[in-house]
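ok, trying the design again with the full structure, not the truncated one.
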C-alpha cells in the first residue's frame, strides 16, 4: 500500500507494474462507504493484461485523514465554470482523481467505476478528456429523479452514517447481515467483515457530504448531460438482480451516449448478480472489461497470430 498527497490530502492507492504490450492503465473507483480493496479480485483476474490503479476516495478506506486540508485545484484546466464548489461534490472527487492521474503520470487510462464511483468516473472523463480514453460503469446508472424515493434514500443514508458505534463490529450477527446486503448470493465472510470495517472507518463529513451532494435533483439531472457530452466510449454493466441500481436505470443513463444505438450497444448485463459485481462475479467482470477495452482485444489478436506462426 502506498500513499500520495492529492491536493494536500493523503490518499491510499495501489498501482501494479506496467504491462508489456500496452501503456493503458485501468483505474478502479469504488462506491459509497467502500474502499479500493473490493477491486482486488477483478485485478487478480486481469493479471498482467493491464497496469491497474485502485485507490481510496477522499474520506473513505485509508484515505480518511486530514481531509479538511484539501487545497482548491485550478479551474483553468476544466474549460468551464463548475457550479458546485462543495469539496464533496462529484466534480470535486473527479478533480481529485484527475490530480492523482497527473501526479502518477498516467496518460492513457480507462476508468472503471462502481455505483457512486461510476458517477465520479463519468465526471472525470468529462473534465480530463485528454487522459481518459473510456469509461466502464459497474452497477451505476441513474438520471431519473424520483422525489419520494430519493428522500427516503437520503434519510436512510444519513441515519447509517450518524449511527455507527464501534461496538457494532462485535455483534454476532453483523457479518452475516452484511454478507447478504445488496447481493444475489451471500458473500464470503471476509468481504462481509470488510464492509463493516469500511462503514465504521468512513469520515463522517465525506460520507454525508457526498451522499447529499450527489443526490440532489440538479445533480441527478446533470449526469445524463455529462454522458451525452462524452467523446470517449462509455459502457455500462448492470446486475440482473441488482435492487439498488436496477437494470432499467442503468439502461436509462446509458441511452444518452451515442454507443447505445450501435449494433452491440453499450450495456452488458450479468445474470444472477446483485449490486456488488466485483465481488459476486469478478472473473466475468474482468472478462467483460477485456472485451470492451481496445488494447486488450489488440493483445488477444496479436497473441493468436503469434500462436499460429509457431
Amino acid at each position: 500500500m502506498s500513499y500520495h498527497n492529492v491536493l494536500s490530502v493523503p490518499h491510499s492507492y495501489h498501482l501494479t507494474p506496467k504491462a508489456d504490450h500496452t501503456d493503458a492503465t485501468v483505474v478502479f473507483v469504488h462506491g459509497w462507504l467502500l474502499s479500493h480493496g473490493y477491486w482486488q479480485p477483478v485485478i487478480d483476474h486481469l493479471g498482467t493484461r493491464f497496469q491497474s490503479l485502485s485507490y481510496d476516495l477522499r474520506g473513505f478506506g485509508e484515505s480518511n485523514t486530514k481531509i479538511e486540508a484539501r487545497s482548491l485545484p485550478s479551474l483553468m484546466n476544466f474549460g468551464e465554470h463548475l457550479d458546485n464548489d462543495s469539496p464533496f461534490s462529484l466534480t470535486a472527487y473527479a478533480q481529485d482523481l484527475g490530480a492523482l492521474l497527473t501526479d502518477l503520470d498516467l496518460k492513457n487510462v480507462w476508468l472503471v467505476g462502481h455505483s457512486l464511483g461510476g458517477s465520479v468516473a463519468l465526471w472525470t472523463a468529462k473534465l480530463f478528456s485528454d487522459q481518459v480514453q473510456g469509461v466502464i460503469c459497474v452497477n451505476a446508472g441513474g438520471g431519473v429523479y424520483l422525489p419520494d424515493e430519493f428522500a427516503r434514500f437520503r434519510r436512510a443514508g444519513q441515519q447509517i452514517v450518524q449511527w455507527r458505534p464501534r461496538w457494532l463490529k462485535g455483534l454476532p450477527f453483523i457479518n452475516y447481515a452484511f454478507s447478504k446486503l445488496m447481493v444475489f448470493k451471500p458473500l464470503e465472510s471476509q468481504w462481509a467483515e470488510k464492509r463493516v470495517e469500511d462503514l465504521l472507518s468512513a469520515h463522517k463529513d465525506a460520507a454525508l457530504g457526498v451522499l447529499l451532494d450527489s443526490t440532489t435533483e440538479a445533480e441527478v439531472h446533470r449526469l445524463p448531460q455529462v454522458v451525452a457530452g462524452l467523446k470517449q466510449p462509455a459502457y455500462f454493466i448492470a446486475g440482473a438482480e441488482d435492487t439498488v441500481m436496477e437494470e432499467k436505470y442503468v439502461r436509462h443513463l446509458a441511452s444518452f451516449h451515442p454507443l447505445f444505438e450501435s449494433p452491440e450497444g453499450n450495456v452488458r448485463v450479468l445474470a444472477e448478480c446483485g449490486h456488488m459485481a466485483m465481488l459476486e462475479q469478478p472473473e466475468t467482470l474482468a472478462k467483460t472489461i477485456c472485451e470492451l477495452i481496445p488494447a486488450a482485444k489488440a493483445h488477444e489478436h496479436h497473441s493468436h497470430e503469434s500462436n499460429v506462426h509457431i
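Keeping the full-length input from now on. Residues 147-162 form the longest helix (16 residues).
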